[in-house]
Amino acid sequence: MTQKELLRYDVIKNLIESKINGTEASIQLNLSVRQVKRLKAGVKEKGVKGIIHCNRGRDGNNNIDPRIFEEAKKYLHKKYFDFGPTFASEKLEENHHIELSKETVRKIMTVEGLWKPKSRKKPKDRHVWRARKEYFGEIEQFDGSYHKWFEDRAEEACLLLSVDDAKGEITHAKFDLNESTSCLWLLERIY
Question: Which pLDDT belongs to residue 190?
Fold first, then answer.
């Protein structure tokens, strides 16, 4: 029995002996009152074994019969050693009536050295931002943004903007028809 199960047994024993009530037991065990009643009935009927879950020690529902497992391994080594797991799974079912999922076949093939899983791609290095300049005016960054700034009152315009790198402040802004070199030279001349 685990430490948790021993604690449960002690609390349920105290409940049966009327040292504590069901609510106190549920608080101590961090369970609902219904679960505490179920445990109490189990302990009264089976004793200490009433605390232990009935499925302990049993094989799982998805457990594969070892004979089928070995037979599949044999066929994978003899006939399907150069197949991929999905195709091998289909052929095992089609030709030998062995129904195994493609993931189970993949596990078998990987353990037996018949299949090598694809390695995951390394993530690309992320862009590292450079540090801002120390002094105002050291670097100016220019960019243009096309938008209907004036709604329906005018055509689409380009906002030419100059931002100082050190402080991130807008130093110049101007609307123009496009982001041409001549427009940027005029903006720079103002600077």
Answer: 64
